[in-house]
Write a structure and sequence with these properties.
The protein is α/β, with parallel strands linked by helices. The protein has two domains: about 110 residues, Urease, subunit C, domain 1, CATH 2.30.40.10; about 290 residues, TIM Barrel (Alpha-Beta Barrel), CATH 3.20.20.140. The chain has 13 helices and 16 strands. The structure holds zinc ion (ZN). Zinc ion (ZN) binds next to loops. The site of zinc ion (ZN) has 4 residues, from loops.
Amino acid sequence: MVDGEGRRPRSGDSARRSHRLFAGWLIDGTGAPAKKNALIGVEGGLISSVEFPSPEELSRLERDDSLFYESYPSCTILPGLIDCHVHLSMSGKIDRNLRVRQLGNGFEQSGPLIWKRLERCLSLGIMAVRDGGDVGGHALRFVRENGYGQVRIKCAGKGWRAPGRYGKIIGRAPVNGSTLAESIQADCAPVDHVKILNSGINSLEEFGRETAPQFDREELEAAFREARNRGRKIMVHANGRRPVECGVAAGCDSIEHGFFMGEENLKRMADRQIFWVPTACTMKALGASLPAGSTQRTTASRMLESQLEQMSRARELGVSVASGTDAGSFGVRHGLALVEELKLLTAAGFSIEETLRCATSSGAALLGLESELGRIRPGMEASFLVAPGPPAHLPGSLSNPHAVYRRGVKISGLQ
Ligand SMILES: [Zn+2]
């Protein structure tokens, strides 16, 4: 194929203001069934058209040397992915000494590591992440001081926990007798989301042990009012029935993790259109790191199973699920963990289109990026990835994308 000036397409031509891409299949991010033979127009970094030419039109286009386009006839094109729960300042490695050491890292050490993790995300077509906080506030500082134009980052800064409760590595407690609401009001950090820890973490000794809510419904309602007055969304870390119920009743935007939350909470979330970010891959990664035959490993795999059952029920009830990985936690590596999470969604009964909706348009809506990312349709950013093979090869094929485009420019290609 030759472009309008008679040159063969070459690397970098995709930076042209206007070009077209052809793919054997398209998944648009809405959950609609995959379609065959998609021709996508790109102009000025945005999608200008999406067409599905007939075989006759297609062979005419192929013969027309005046058109420039890049062709991926054996690949599937889909919107860039979004990971709705990461901790950029933390490594997902399982070396316990390293994990302890990194908590003492200053910003000078964290900054270059954050950069590397974002590069890894981008190479897999992850175009946006939401950072769930770190006690040093390094991810937020990184965004303010360095920025990283290729991957959009939404930050929670430092999270909030109750005095004496779980969450020291990602948050702080209100001080000097202040309430949570007063603390949020007084905090001038320019965060996008307020992160509130409202339970402990899952016990590996006792399957399903529930911890008490860190804050009650009234405290949360007052805190959420302050957060919303400042234009912020609210993400609530909660496992177990009561901790989730308090967050949902007070009207959060998303429940993070939500292990053991139960059917009633899922119904409430469906009614109120509250997002759920299940982070099921954390249990898979944790289980894999524990000694075979140990009680802890059995408990981790039971927790994974019970989370998959909840995900399946959430799908039936119409809960908006957005995919997030908790990358940076034990064994959960930045980038590839999202492919693992998507495999678990399909294992829970989501079709491949529904699975990808969780990682595209639903994620974009939760992050407030729905007018830019998450769908392939005219007017959206031309930010997408090209996965090798037909839709049946997804989500596994996402671990080795054929090409990634950011605002119309091919930023990596493995051809
Ligand atoms: Zn987290």
